[in-house]
DNA sequence: TATATTTACTTTAACGTTAACTTTAAGGTT
DNA sequence: AACCTTAAAGTTAACGTTAAAGTAAATATA
């Protein structure tokens, strides 16, 4: 069993409070006593029991973070940003991977509330789900990532997928690609609809009929699916064809399929991804993509939550939108 | 403030213990009373305070996990495995990213101990460091990932980098590649030396002098460094050249550099990676690599720690070694 | 019918820490 | 000398829960 303040107090023949105060450098305690306490604490390998402290202070200095899949580079980068900022402010994060499953997600929120996290950051799997009712009962600050159900009047942080998609498709259209494909996934998420709307925005700008956009739904976000869907769906009919893929990782599968179909890139077919993951710049044909500041997004998200934690009265609800930008490379 | 058992007890005019027992389904409580308690709890949005429970039970059902960089796919996959298994056993993980910094790492261990995690999983940044002394004082079970300092007699789980490197280089040599380059990083880590030894093992097998291995040290694990080092260092002198890269992500940078230098792959130059990340199979030339079961490693690691947590007497120290295998693809 | 057992609770104390208040003794003022 | 101040402690109670032991009434046993 770990050493407690009681043990130290007994050894030094002082009260527990003296030990407690000495260890936090309280001015009540004389330098001499403080030194004796500190030395004894070290000697006995004392580490404060934060569980007990949390109970008294009603703050755990712990933040709950729920993401749909931590092995997606996208979330991994966000989590890195979140963790970094909180760590620098003496908070830790309890991480739960919801496996894109609304049931796990709901349990996760419940568990984190039971563990009395001081705040919650939450990347939902669905636009609407039972989690909304649960969140309504919650008394700690929380932020949603990339999804803002109308039913919840809460803080959120999102990438501007709609704008990103507009940039992507505009770029394709203005580069002379006429037939435009959008390979997308996650039908049930807001971001999915936003993306499609962004494509439409670009079509509107170019006075093209929206029906001309070729939407290809990929039921899973994995390379095999995107690869196969590309093989099946993407045609080249003597018009330059532009393909916009859900994200950079999926674009790797798309690219391979395009090459296998014998299309020359970027002459016949142009490809745009989304994210700007680390490898995109170093692919044999470096990938044109929409840069998405994932790490910064994580940081900003954490900073906002910290603000909430430190402020006494509840702050105004804020919807943060991360700006994106086009990175033109060799695939267009 | 959240509802407590006390509040429920007051409302129902019963003792706190009745509430406590009713909520955990203790047989002492009549069905009728239990129902009343449960209903009232729901009505008042009661959630148990796990902080208080942890204090009494001296277990937090929380595991500390420290990794050098959560945005490395390698660690992200391991963490996913760890989190999944623990979640299924009602544990949560406190995740800390040490940013490859021994100071942060040391703080992280201290913090996790203070938060009274029930166990610790730890991917060290260095072979030896001050963390060793700290771990020696620790009374909870812990497992090290990919590093097993002799000074610590503890559980560990590692990928068999040496064997993997041997497989990689043997494959290159037996495929007719004569000049072998190994682009590596993390000099200060055990895994780094193991890898080099694995290359030597292959050279020994083929009766080649170890000096013939061309070691290229990359001071940072990033694509730019690997790309530049490849441009600078890798030559082709009318002998088929084999390049073995530290991991698949870095191999993308290497590949691009090789192509830019005008080498034809796999005819003049062969390339082998390490990890088998998701994109490797779908690169334009699919990447020959050493498959590394990261997710399984995370799961196994968690299962082992669970074993320790559940067993009364301390178990024998175990060094788990994850087997690797060669995946032959188009770059060799 | 007296005694043992069971059911359904209640009481007490503890987990380790800290906030808020109180005490004691020394030193300083007038 | 009587009073006030200050330094350096100590005491008490609380945070929310649970383990363990206690109790009273109802039921079963002989």
Outline of the structure:
Two copies of one chain form a homodimer. Chain A has 332 residues and is of the alpha/beta class.
Topology readout:
The structure is a homodimer of 332-residue chains.
Chain A: H1 5-12, H2 16-23, H3 31-43, H4 50-57, E1 62-67, H5 73-88, E2 92-97, H6 102-114, E3 119-122, H7 131-136, E4 142-145, E5 155-159, H8 161-174, E6 179-184, H9 190-205, E7 214-217, H10 223-233, E8 241-245, H11 248-260, E9 269-272, E10 289-291, H12 294-310, E11 319-322, E12 325-327
Parallel strand pairs in A: 1-2, 1-3, 3-4, 4-5, 5-11, 6-7, 6-8, 8-9
Antiparallel strand pairs in A: 10-12
Helix pairs in contact in A: 1-2, 1-3, 2-3, 5-12, 8-9, 10-11
The first copy, chain A, binds a DNA duplex (30 and 30 nucleotides) through residues 4-6, 14-18, 20-21, 24, 27-30, 33, 48-58.
What does this entry look like structurally?
- With 332 residues, chain A is an alpha/beta fold.
- Helix content of chain A is 43%, strand content 16%.
- The first copy, chain A, is built from twelve helices and twelve strands.
- In chain A, the strands form three sheets. The first copy, chain A, has a six-stranded parallel beta sheet with strand order 2-1-3-4-5-11, with helices on both faces. In chain A, strands 7-6-8-9 form a four-stranded parallel beta sheet, with helices on both faces. A two-stranded antiparallel ribbon of chain A has the order 10-12.
- Chain A binds a DNA duplex (30 and 30 nucleotides) through residues 4-6, 14-18, 20-21, 24, 27-30, 33, 48-58.
């Amino acid at each position: 069993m770990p050493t407690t303040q009681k043990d130290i107090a007994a050894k030094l023949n002082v009260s527990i409070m003296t030990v407690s105060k000495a260890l936090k450098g309280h001015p009540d305690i004389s330098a001499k006593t403080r030194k004796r306490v500190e030395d004894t604490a070290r000697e006995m390998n004392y580490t404060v029991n934060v569980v007990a402290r949390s109970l008294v202070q009603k703050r755990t200095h712990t933040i709950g973070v729920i993401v749909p899949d931590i092995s997606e580079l996208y979330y991994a980068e966000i989590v890195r940003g979140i963790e970094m900022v909180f760590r620098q402010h003496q908070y830790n994060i309890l991480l739960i991977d919801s496996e894109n499953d609304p049931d796990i997600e709901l349990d996760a929120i419940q568990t984190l509330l039971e563990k009395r996290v001081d705040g919650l950051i939450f990347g939902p799997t669905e636009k609407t789900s039972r989690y909304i009712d649960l969140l309504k009962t919650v008394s700690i600050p929380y932020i949603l990532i990339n999804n803002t159900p109308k039913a919840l009047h809460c803080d959120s942080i999102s990438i501007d997928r709609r704008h990103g998609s507009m940039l992507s498709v505009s770029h394709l259209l203005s580069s002379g690609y006429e037939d435009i494909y959008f390979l997308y996934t996650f039908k049930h998420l807001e971001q999915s609809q936003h993306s499609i709307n962004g494509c439409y925005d670009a079509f509107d700008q170019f006075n093209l009929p929206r029906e001309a956009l070729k939407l290809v739904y990929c039921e899973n976000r994995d390379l095999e699916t995107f690869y196969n869907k590309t093989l099946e769906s993407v045609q080249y009919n003597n018009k330059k064809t532009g393909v916009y893929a859900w994200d950079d990782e999926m674009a790797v599968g798309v690219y391979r399929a395009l090459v296998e179909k014998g299309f020359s890139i970027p002459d016949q077919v142009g490809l745009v991804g989304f994210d700007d993951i680390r490898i995109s710049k170093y692919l044999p044909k470096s990938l044109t993509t929409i840069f998405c500041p994932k790490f910064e997004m994580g940081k900003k998200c954490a900073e906002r939550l910290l603000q909430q934690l430190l402020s006494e009265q509840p702050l105004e609800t804020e919807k943060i939108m991360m700006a994106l930008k086009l990175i033109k490379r060799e695939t267009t």
